[in-house]
Automatic annotation (TrEMBL):
Phylogenetic placement of the source organism: Bacteria, Pseudomonadati, Pseudomonadota, Alphaproteobacteria, Rhodobacterales
Cofactor(s) required, per the database record: Mg(2+); K(+)
One GO BP: nicotinamide nucleotide metabolic process
Reactions listed under catalytic activity: (6S)-NADHX + ADP = AMP + phosphate + NADH + H(+); (6R)-NADPHX = (6S)-NADPHX; (6S)-NADPHX + ADP = AMP + phosphate + NADPH + H(+); (6R)-NADHX = (6S)-NADHX
Designated name of the protein: Bifunctional NAD(P)H-hydrate repair enzyme
Pfam families: Carb_kinase (PF01256), YjeF_N (PF03853)
Domain YjeF N-terminal: 10-215
Role this protein plays: Catalyzes the epimerization of the S- and R-forms of NAD(P)HX, a damaged form of NAD(P)H that is a result of enzymatic or heat-dependent hydration. This is a prerequisite for the S-specific NAD(P)H-hydrate dehydratase to allow the repair of both epimers of NAD(P)HX. Catalyzes the dehydration of the S-form of NAD(P)HX at the expense of ADP, which is converted to AMP. Together with NAD(P)HX epimerase, which catalyzes the epimerization of the S- and R-forms, the enzyme allows the repair of both epimers of NAD(P)HX, a damaged form of NAD(P)H that is a result of enzymatic or heat-dependent hydration.
Gene: nnrE
Length: 517
């Protein structure tokens, strides 16, 4: 399952299926409840004992009443605590079918939680449209302190299903849910921002909607590349020539990392272009990467005119002077595929005339700070704590930035978001069995820029190069593991490629996709 839905998209699918008579809301709710109970058993086989179920007023609460009934039928001792009476027809019906104890959540006392093995959080799901107060999150915090495992129905209450941001007043509970069980498709709030960090073990269970038609504009998770990444027969120029521009003496490390990554990912040739004063330093550090002196933007003319030069990478350790701005402008005027990172992004944000030269063969790879310099209004809107109504998520911000700038934008992080100028969005989620916290190390971003630039040089489309780059980068980090430094990423790439091609040649199925669960 590679789609990531918004709550509106999920609602639209559900409403269409119900209105067409293909399913009833009650049947969906029953399957959702059953899915949660099954997921609890799979996660903690044999667990049984006392459970408290916190129910909200909407259909998320409705799921809670189903879960209470099914747990009780399995021998659990269950008590329901309701934040408010059920308010939707389906939740009212499911509450009526519950024959056990039910009390107001406001009456919850520490004694009610003693010995509870489970706390089912069915307070709010995809319908959360405004911040919750302490009366909602404090009982969850209390249950956690009492030692109960928190099971979030659909999503941990207080997280926005569209942005992953916390919507809470007066604090929020510490830490993640122990288990989150969502229905049919993961939602954006399960991978973006805090949502990715707070989902705990994550399962998506079927509720019978998988064949329903999807609305337009669905965001997709980046999955493993396939055989397309392998090298076809040919000579080195068949696989492209990448030019990486570097800064002056003592500043070349970042560009060298990018250049080596471009070579490792299969560009036929990689040249590092540096100021003449940095030639000696770079020559002692590079063998397979070629070197060329580039004192001024004018020195790039013949290189840029050469059709065999298929991509560029500008930014890592580049510098922020007038000379660098001129080289950036010359590159953009040549309209070749390129990755713009680091200092190139800062130069862009300073100079509207250079920004006017952007074109659709470019990939911009900002981190959060660079993104805020490039598109301050969008970054501010994204950072605002969501109040009432729909949130402005990282997906919304990156989609808007790509449309405004007319380039592919990749905004980095454990939740890497990639958008095209046309509005297509992909997310690479470095979570769960794809978590890569060791990537938070100096120079990791330079390697990512080099990988993507190498893929551009090989002829991949900018959005495809960006998505494959994000996947390969995290896979390389995971392949190396703890202790990773940026240099290790390039050296781990061959094993990652070998694994991919072996998986492809084997079952014909990728062994290492990036599933939501
Ligand atoms: N969409 C689907 O296909 C399915 C949805 N189901 C469940 O239904 C849930 C969505 O149900 P709803 O749309 O009823 O939404 P919720 O149950 O998430 O909450 C909506 C209710 O809470 C109120 N509310 C929202 N924010 C509040 C706040 N901060 N403080 C107090 N009240 C607040 C709303 O006015 C509304 O009454 C899903 O998360 C899922 O658990 C499942 O039953 C199965 C199928
Ligand atoms: N916790 C994390 N999980 C997954 N990826 C991460 C994490 N922290 C950082 N990264 C990745 O590491 C890279 C860091 O890039 P960047 O911030 O530009 O650093 P630098 O400029 O030092 O190279 C990005 O690709 C980012 O997505
Ligand atoms: K919930």
């Amino acid at each position: 399952m590679t789609e990531l839905l918004t709550s509106a998209q999920m609602r639209a699918i559900e409403t269409a299926a119900i209105s067409a008579g293909r399913v009833t809301g009650l049947a969906l709710m029953e399957r959702a409840g059953q899915g949660v109970v099954d997921a609890i058993q799979t996660t903690w086989p044999g667990l049984c004992g006392r459970a408290v179920v916190f129910c909200g007023p909407g259909n998320n609460g409705g799921d809670g009443y189903v879960i209470a009934r099914l747990l009780q039928a399995q021998g659990w001792q269950v008590a329901i605590f309701a934040l408010a009476p059920p308010a939707t027809p389906d939740a009212i019906a499911m509450a009526a079918a519950w024959e056990g104890p039910s009390r107001p959540l406001a009456d919850l006392a520490a004694a009610d939680l003693q010995g509870a093995a489970l706390c089912i959080d069915a307070l709010f799901g995809t319908g959360l449209q405004r911040p919750i107060g302490p009366e909602v999150w404090q009982p969850l915090a209390l249950a956690r302190r009492a030692g109960a495992r928190i099971v979030a129905v659909d999503i941990l209450s207080g997280l926005c299903a569209d942005s992953g941001q916390v919507r809470s007043l007066g604090g929020y509970l510490d830490g993640p849910a122990d288990l989150t069980v969502s229905f049919e498709w993961a939602k954006l709030g399960h991978v973006l921002a805090e949502g990715g960090q707070r989902r705990g073990a994550f399962r998506v269970v079927p509720i019978g909607l998988s064949e329903e038609p999807h609305p337009d504009g669905v965001v997709r998770l980046v999955t493993a590349p396939g055989a397309e990444l392998d090298k076809a027969q040919g000579h080195k120029f068949s696989h492209g020539h990448l030019l990486v521009l570097s800064g002056g003496p003592g500043k070349g490390g970042a560009a060298r990392l990018a250049a080596r990554a471009g070579l490792r990912i299969g560009a036929g040739l990689v040249t590092l272009g540096c100021p003449p004063a940095a030639m000696a330093e770079n020559a002692t550090r590079m063998d397979a990467v070629m070197l060329t002196p580039l004192a001024h933007a004018g020195d790039m003319v013949s290189l840029l005119a050469d059709a065999r030069l298929t991509a560029l990478c500008l930014g890592p350790g580049f510098g922020l002077g007038a000379g660098q701005a001129a080289k950036l402008a010359a590159t953009l005027r040549a309209r070749k595929p390129a990755v713009l990172d680091a200092d190139a992004l800062t130069l862009l944000s300073r100079d509207p005339e250079v920004r006017a030269l952007l074109h659709d063969q470019l990939v911009l790879t900002p981190h959060g700070g660079e993104f805020a310099r490039l598109v301050p209004d969008l970054a501010a809107q994204m950072a605002n704590p969501p109040g009432r109504g729909p949130a402005f998520s990282k997906v919304d911000a990156v989609r808007a930035a790509a449309a405004r700038l007319g380039v592919v934008v990749l905004l980095k992080g454990p939740d890497t978001v990639i958008a095209t100028p046309g509005g297509q969005v992909q997310v690479h989620a470095a979570l769960g069995d794809r978590a890569a916290p060791w990537l938070a190390t100096a120079g990791a971003g330079d390697v990512l820029a080099g990988i993507i630039a190498g893929l551009l040089a090989r002829g991949f489309r900018p959005d495809r190069a960006a998505a494959m780059g994000a996947w390969l980068h995290v896979s390389a980090a995971r392949n190396f593991g703890p202790g990773l430094i940026a240099e290790d990423l390039t050296e781990a790439l061959p094993a990652v490629l070998r694994g991919l091609f072996q998986a492809e040649a084997g079952a014909g199925v990728s062994a290492s996709s990036n599933p939501p669960a």
